[in-house]
């Protein structure tokens, strides 16, 4: 049976993963806004480190979620690959036209607690949280360049940070999310992604927290350092020391937030820094947004993390300072 997948947000990350779903088992459609005409006419052009150059032609291209919601079939998965710019309760309403009784939401977004607005809007819809490790950029309206890495991790979301579902309804929703996470990983594995992984609810949130080592440490520092790339910064001894200290601050807070240390299999700060040195010639998405004058994922990546850590008795003074500075800088634009 064909799996119908709608990807909302055909930027670098959304476009890349959309192109890697197993073509024989899926019908993949994109919702494009600014690049609608270009993608509709010629598909997405992919220039990738991992798979070479190719063209991805979606089954359908829509100019809006409303248009996708009028499709003659239900969407099994609605993948949200937009920026997490708002934590307000109404922030998830834009996907409602495409969400049916059998739909699962897949959130491919950076940051902490990004699922909360979607759970508030869709209390009976399975939510699958996804964390990526990829360096990619949208270069032109319909050209995606993947510089390095393909890792994507999936897991079901429950409101309890430690993964507990206490009612029959919550357990049923969790089971649907677990199955959806497995399906997502399987379809991408069949499409050539060798590091699509599945975690339980709590461990996926640990993976999400661990990614703050990149998002909250490197990407934010890149903006505050004047728009520098991550590889450039980690070759600067002073900035490397700062970034590594931020990473350890993130990891040191984890036991208080989760009640246990992060899994040993997750990369150490030293390993992340060594890997980052090789990813030359690219800028983080946050630096790209800053240079283009676009709003930043400030609350998702910094504000939520700092507040959550403090609520559990953990202090992250470096991240708190960067949050205050970047919040002020953004307000002055």
From TrEMBL:
Residues 205-328 form the Ketopantoate reductase C-terminal domain. It catalyses: (R)-pantoate + NADP(+) = 2-dehydropantoate + NADPH + H(+). GO terms for biological process: pantothenate biosynthetic process. Keywords: NADP, Oxidoreductase. It is an enzyme of class 1 (oxidoreductase). Its EC number is 1.1.1.169. GO terms for molecular function: 2-dehydropantoate 2-reductase activity. One of its GO terms (cellular component) is cytoplasm. Residues 5-157 form the Ketopantoate reductase N-terminal domain. The keyword NADP applies. PANTHER family: 2-DEHYDROPANTOATE 2-REDUCTASE, PROBABLE 2-DEHYDROPANTOATE 2-REDUCTASE. Belongs to the ketopantoate reductase family. NCBIfam families: apbA_panE (TIGR00745). Catalyzes the NADPH-dependent reduction of ketopantoate into pantoic acid. This is 2-dehydropantoate 2-reductase. It comes from Malassezia caprae.
């Amino acid at each position: 049976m064909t799996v119908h997948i709608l990807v909302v947000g055909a930027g670098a990350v959304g476009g890349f993963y959309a192109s890697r779903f197993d073509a024989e088992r899926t019908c993949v459609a994109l919702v494009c806004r600014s690049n609608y005409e270009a993608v509709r006419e010629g598909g997405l052009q992919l220039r990738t480190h991992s798979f070479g150059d190719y063209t991805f032609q979606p089954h359908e291209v829509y100019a809006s979620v409303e248009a996708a919601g009028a499709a003659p079939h239900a969407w099994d998965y609605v993948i949200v690959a937009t920026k997490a710019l708002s934590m307000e309760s109404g922030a998830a309403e834009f996907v409602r036209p495409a969400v049916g009784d059998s739909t699962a939401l897949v959130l491919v977004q950076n940051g902490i607690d990004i699922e909360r607005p979607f759970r508030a809007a869709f209390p009976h819809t399975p939510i699958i949280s996804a964390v990526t490790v990829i360096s990619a950029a949208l270069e032109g309206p319909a050209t995606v360049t993947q510089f390095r890495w393909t890792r994507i991790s999936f897991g079901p979301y429950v409101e309890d940070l430690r993964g507990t579902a206490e009612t029959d309804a919550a357990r049923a929703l969790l089971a649907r999310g677990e199955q959806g996470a497995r399906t997502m990983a399987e379809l991408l594995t069949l499409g050539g992604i060798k590091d699509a992984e599945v975690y339980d609810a709590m461990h996926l949130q640990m993976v999400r927290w661990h990614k703050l080592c990149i998002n909250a440490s490197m990407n934010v520092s890149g903006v505050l350092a004047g728009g520098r790339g991550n590889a450039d910064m980690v070759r600067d001894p002073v900035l490397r020391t700062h970034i590594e200290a931020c990473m350890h601050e993130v990891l040191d807070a984890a036991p208080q937030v989760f009640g246990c240390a992060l899994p040993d299999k997750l990369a150490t700060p030293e390993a992340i820094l060594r890997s980052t040195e090789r990813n030359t010639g690219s800028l983080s998405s946050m630096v790209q947004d800053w240079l283009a004058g676009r709003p930043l994922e400030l609350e998702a990546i910094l504000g939520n993390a700092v507040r959550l850590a403090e609520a559990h008795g953990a202090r992250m003074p470096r991240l708190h300072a960067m949050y205050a500075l970047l919040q002020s800088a953004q307000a002055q634009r």
